[in-house]
Amino acid sequence: MNSLYASRLVSQVIWPDFTAHFKSHTTEASYRTDISEIMEYFHKDFLEIEKYEIQEYFYFLKHKVEQKEIRPATMSKKFRELHSFAEYVCENREKYKVKEEYQNEYSPYLRQLSKQEKYARTVPVVHLDELLKAAESNIMEYCILTFLFRVGLSSTEVMQLKMSDLAWYDNGVYISVYGRKKMCYVPEDVCQILERHIEERERNEKSSSQTYLFCNKRGNPLNPMYISRMMRRYEEKAGIPHYSAQSVRNCCAVTLFAYGASEDQVADRMGTTKIQIKRYKNLAYQDQLQQQAERLVKLRVEPPSVR
Fold first, then answer.
1. Do the bridges between strand 172-175 and strand 184-186 make them parallel or antiparallel, or are there none, so unpaired?
2. What is the rounded distance in angstroms from the CA atom of residue 167 to the CA atom of residue 159?
């Protein structure tokens, strides 16, 4: 935390503790940007921002939404993160010797924001971090989660993927997804995780002969019940609420919108137009909407540590 207005307590003590458990750089960067932003708006340390100023900031962001300068999802993300940081401070008040007068005044606004968010059912970034951390011992299931979150595929699309759907080109890795008009771009961080998964498949003679990219222990393609049970298993392990695979997928759209991607770029990534897929032999003439959208977003998911 390098904001000019952050106190030593916030920047050098509370912030390192708060971010220490984050799995991805996405979370830390997102929180740092939004917390620094409100301090710069008021020219104050985070702990000095008062209740009436938080209300002022709420209406400032709401006005930006009304003027279409930011999206409802962006405003919701900002307040969820401000709330989360303030709640952490309050829960650890004694540890950091924070005065009793300091309260989490962001909480009352969360309910209002949830009503205006286009993709209301998403996973908070802190919980998404915990979900990834819980899954890192299983490279296949970790890869599935990144396909939902970073590639924007639905659980059905993930289950239908075959090894033959993967294509490596000079301008990146793409996947042919049934029902989509265009091939789907795979971000570089997901490629690293995908390669780890494929290497593990190749070491397993039974699974390496299978046509599907993701298989169960018997080598059969996955089904919706598998994805649901996988999610619940890692949620229980992480101690977080239950979320659907669709909620994880929605995070992809929300993240793109929050970083300023256009509706066309997000639609391109999420595959909202369901047209029978046409397989492209040469991607040189394809538009670069998906890659352009990816360059807007400064995030990546780290591959799990080798065990």
1. antiparallel
2. 17
Please list the rounded mean pLDDT of every run of 10 residues in the chain (307 residues): 88 93 79 93 95 92 81 84 94 92 90 56 81 92 94 91 89 85 87 91 63 86 90 92 87 75 74 33 30 48 69
Cβ-based neighbour number of residue 285 at 10 Å? 6
Contact between residue 241 and residue 127 where contact means Cβ atoms under 8 Å apart: yes
Beta bridge partners of 166: 175
Residues ≥6 apart with Cβ < 8 Å to 43: 5
Per-residue pLDDT at 139: 94
What's the pLDDT score for residue 297?
Answer: 44
| Non-local CB neighbours of 189 within 8 Å, separated by 6+ positions | 146, 150, 300, 301, 302, 303
Residue 33: the pLDDT is 92
Residue with the two structure tokens 């959208």: 293
Which residues are bridge partners to 175 per DSSP? 166, 184
* Residue 117, both tokens: 């968010």
List, in order, residues 6 or more apart from 234 with CB less than 8 Å away.
131, 134, 135, 141
Q: How far apart are CA 71 and CA 58, in angstroms?
A: 14
**Ordered alpha helix ranges (H), 110-216:** 110-116, 125-135, 139-146, 155-160, 188-203, 205-208
Sign of CA dihedral 280, 283, 284, 285: positive
* pTM for this model (two decimals): 0.55
